[in-house]
């Protein structure tokens, strides 16, 4: 299995176990809402652009609510588990699922895991950590474009990549998986450390980050 498939399966197992009303890190969403979001992004291509485009967000939210009402929760989870249909770009373009969904499903898996009491970071395979680091090196400036201060991402071995060039700058240190969660806007639940001016760190911790 690819990492995207492994994360998808593990997330679906967790969603099945927790049921539709468990909390998530996605503001205002329980597990049923997050599951409907995942169904929408792979099966309602007319509404998926509204995930990123504000002028379509209202339409996307309405479609997501209809998806949630139309399908019983176990059916929603099963649709996610099945993966993207063959007629979608994910099915038509070889490797696209792994490229796009590895980080997506890891982050949403952690959105569910870390919203539950007593969570602890899990061991992430080294090759997956390297995949996340490559994603951060290529996308950190996009993910952190809304940061109110400069940001440098640093691995525990000292390797760095620039997130946003500005002053004052904050250096954020952690494993690539934790830096990915930070860059996707999960600052409060990412196991990272901050080096920089205290006021700049506070502003960064409170900022809305992410793709």
UniProtKB/TrEMBL annotation:
<dbReference type="InterPro" id="IPR017519">
    <property type="entry name" value="CHP03085"/>
</dbReference>
<protein>
    <submittedName>
        <fullName>TIGR03085 family metal-binding protein</fullName>
    </submittedName>
</protein>
<dbReference type="InterPro" id="IPR034660">
    <property type="entry name" value="DinB/YfiT-like"/>
</dbReference>
<dbReference type="InterPro" id="IPR017517">
    <property type="entry name" value="Maleyloyr_isom"/>
</dbReference>
<dbReference type="InterPro" id="IPR024344">
    <property type="entry name" value="MDMPI_metal-binding"/>
</dbReference>
<feature type="domain" description="Mycothiol-dependent maleylpyruvate isomerase metal-binding">
    <location>
        <begin position="5"/>
        <end position="85"/>
    </location>
</feature>
<dbReference type="Pfam" id="PF11716">
    <property type="entry name" value="MDMPI_N"/>
</dbReference>
